[in-house]
Write a structure and sequence with these properties.
33% of the residues lie in helices and 25% in strands. By secondary structure, the protein is an alpha/beta fold. Helix 3 links the parallel strand 2 and strand 3.
Length: 188
Amino acid sequence: MMYQNAVAISHELVSRHVRPGDTVVDATAGNGNDTLFLVNLVGELGKVYAFDIQQCALEQTALRLERAGVLERARLIHDGHENMKQHVTPGVRAVMFNFGYLPGGDHSLYTRPQTSIAAVEAAMELISDDGIVMLAIYSGGDTGFAERDALLSYLRQVDNHSYSVLLHDFINYPNCPPLAVSITRCPK
């Protein structure tokens, strides 16, 4: 299989972990692409919690899910992803992130290092022993490099006895391609 971008890597790895009936989180609902992907993975008995601070993103996500006939499988939450532990109980199979700004949205609204790191920490606490946290880190623009560098600095310091953190970087692609990072628990 050829991976052409961070989203393809994220979808492939998450699909290896998630089974029908699971509970999962889309930490950055955006336009609903990952939410729809996750809803299809968990099936009729599963549940997707999708977070976004922008109401317009949640409306776009709801519309996408409604058109696909699967809106009832998702709970759309108008809150920052750093607060996910207030809405979701531990034992989720996967948490997906796309950092940066809403495609087609206001570029002055974007994820920030402090809340993004807090959200990743929360996600790591929420995943089941066989779960996964996937990050798509977009750099470039006015703010992406600072967030990318802060996230990677934080991730390098995660206890390697508790979690495995794998960075996927397209080193031969031009223009700062997005990075994919997978986080899984180490066997006890």
